């Protein structure tokens, strides 16, 4: 296996960067982490030196550049994990790909209204029916996957898969904004938050010095007493 490099953005804000990072870490694949702070005067030029799309994340494997979080995860699964990024069962694998693609392409209201901010901790305040509908859809997806395919373990499909990597940034958003969830979804959130790699990413985020006001959402949310904001 050639040398792997993963180019990511700020850990506090870049949900897309977290997804392939988690997959690589979970499977113990050695890689060099290259962090490029976003929205600085130098960001675009630095990222363009690595990424054909001009965006992060991008995986560099020898002479190959793979951009886009889901494409990176697919490549890692096929080329480096013998397909083990997805469930072995074909039915479970099809559903895992579908829910991952839905996350990749959808839930725009949640992305916009609940921006990634791992240093923030806010009291829940309903942001409106569109976001609430998407939250309900996500919680329903988690419950359905767990009920149908989760008997072998605590993840969406029993064992950790790309689907979990795709949804853990949503888990972290729900924690930041104190989103109320039904019991099965809340249990999945708690399980994800207890994972060593998730905790390591969050700890690195807390030590970052960059502040991006567009992702802070302070005017919309009341800080939780004692929470870091």
UniProtKB/TrEMBL annotation:
<dbReference type="Pfam" id="PF13410">
    <property type="entry name" value="GST_C_2"/>
</dbReference>
<feature type="domain" description="GST N-terminal">
    <location>
        <begin position="4"/>
        <end position="84"/>
    </location>
</feature>
<protein>
    <recommendedName>
        <fullName>GST N-terminal domain-containing protein</fullName>
    </recommendedName>
</protein>
<dbReference type="InterPro" id="IPR036282">
    <property type="entry name" value="Glutathione-S-Trfase_C_sf"/>
</dbReference>
<dbReference type="GO" id="GO:0004364">
    <property type="term" value="F:glutathione transferase activity"/>
</dbReference>
<dbReference type="GO" id="GO:0006559">
    <property type="term" value="P:L-phenylalanine catabolic process"/>
</dbReference>
<dbReference type="InterPro" id="IPR004045">
    <property type="entry name" value="Glutathione_S-Trfase_N"/>
</dbReference>
<dbReference type="Pfam" id="PF13409">
    <property type="entry name" value="GST_N_2"/>
</dbReference>
<dbReference type="InterPro" id="IPR036249">
    <property type="entry name" value="Thioredoxin-like_sf"/>
</dbReference>
<dbReference type="GO" id="GO:0016034">
    <property type="term" value="F:maleylacetoacetate isomerase activity"/>
</dbReference>
<dbReference type="GO" id="GO:0006749">
    <property type="term" value="P:glutathione metabolic process"/>
</dbReference>
């Amino acid at each position: 296996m050639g040398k792997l490099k993963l180019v990511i953005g700020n850990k506090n804000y870049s949900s897309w960067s977290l997804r392939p990072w988690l997959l690589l870490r979970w499977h113990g694949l050695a890689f060099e982490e290259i962090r490029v702070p976003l929205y600085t005067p130098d960001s675009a030029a630095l990222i363009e030196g690595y990424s054909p799309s001009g965006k992060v994340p991008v995986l560099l494997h020898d002479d190959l550049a793979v951009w886009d979080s889901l494409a990176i995860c697919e490549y890692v699964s096929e080329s480096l994990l013998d397909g083990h990024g997805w469930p072995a069962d074909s039915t479970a694998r099809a559903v895992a790909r579908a829910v991952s693609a839905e996350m990749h392409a959808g839930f725009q209201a949640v992305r916009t209204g609940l921006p990634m901010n791992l240093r923030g901790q806010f009291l829940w305040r309903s942001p409106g029916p569109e976001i609430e509908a998407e939250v309900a859809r996500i919680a329903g997806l988690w419950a359905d996957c767990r009920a149908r395919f989760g008997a072998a373990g605590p993840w969406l499909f029993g064992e950790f898969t790309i689907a979990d990597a795709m949804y853990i940034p949503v888990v972290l958003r729900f924690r930041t904004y104190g989103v109320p969830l039904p019991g099965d979804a809340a249990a999945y959130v708690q399980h994800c938050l207890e994972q060593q790699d998730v905790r390591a990413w969050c700890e690195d985020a807390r030590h970052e010095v960059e502040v991006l006001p567009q992702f802070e959402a302070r005017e919309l949310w009341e800080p939780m007493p004692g929470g870091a904001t």
